[in-house]
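Morning. Coffee machine broken again, so started the prediction first thing and wrote up yesterday's gels while waiting. Chain of 398 residues, entered below exactly as on the submission form.
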Amino acid sequence: MTAFNTQLVHGQTINDNQTGAVNVPIYNSSTYQYQSIKQPVHWDYARSGNPTREFLEKQIAQLEKGVRGFAFASGMAAIHAVLAIFKPGDHLIVGDQIYGGTYRLLNQYFKERQLTFTAVDSRDLTAVAAAIRPNTKAIYFEPFTNPLLQVTSVKKIAQLAHAHHLLTIVDNTFLTPYLQQPLCLGADLVVHSATKYLSGHSDVIAGLVVAKTTELAEKIYFIQNALGGVLSPQDANLVRRGIQTLALRMDRQQANTAQLINFLQQQPEVTKIHYPGIPGTSDYEIAAAECHGCGGVFSFELAPEIDACRFVDHLKLFKLAVSLGAVESLAELPYEMSHAELPPAERLAAGISPQLIRLAVGIEDATDLKADLQQALAAVQPQKQPQIQRQTQKILIK
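Came back before lunch.
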């Protein structure tokens, strides 16, 4: 068995047409020739299977330690496929801080198809247990929430789910299999927006699913083939190529994140930083036990007298944009961007204040990133405040 970083580069062994190609070719064919009417074929029609896509699907299954992987045209297509295995009348428990697109899919699509769900704080095992009904089939959550980076134990949720014969479904987008492998912690299905860290270059939209058992894999494949939201060969190749440098990119992103947090801890304009890699919280304890690092996304809150909109508008190197996990650094104001569709009271109740800034850290030089934050803070501060020496803490980067 090769090591994880080697698997990132090589994936499954390629024996393609005896050409010696070190990368799987991009197969653009929509259909495949039968050798004879009676001879079984592996490939027949590209919606049902494609060699380039299959390479990626096998690789993500290998990395997540599952039996089979599936590649979709977007992260939402992947989530849709997972939710589509349930039947009318089934009930799901979902984390109350899952991706807004997932909530929209549940509320505006699956609700009409008589799938019911209860949103709870997945960190609260008592609340999760209390939400279980006779028709509950699964618990769906994100180990790290967005944008507050609150941490849920995959192991504890999976133990609770299995005790009640429920599936555990984990959206592993923020961590990737490099930092956490939920199936090894007891989960049954893993979902990724491969648009983010796995592809890593803001140039492709993709989704991945990995199943722990053959039974679940067969259900996902039926949905994938029946609905047809498959990833194109060209985009499958882009994700494959991105995966090859996943470890290198995430190591750099985490190192940059640690430097930026240490810098912001010294700034009087910053009142709070949300990142589970900072010691002293239950989030840190869970992350230290179940993850190999905390990724390259964190958020922080500016003092009430600081104009947060002006701050993000003054950033130059950080691009003002949604998404995360790419080589370039991004900044967003969740109150005005990713969570703007929520009523103000709901935003505040969820901890999304107008002063909250989320950064998705890239692989640039940390010195330049710090300088960009510093000049933006200076631009919105009319008078220089006295510097306050603060205690810094070591950031968790394994």
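The mean pLDDT is 94. Going to sketch it on the whiteboard this afternoon.
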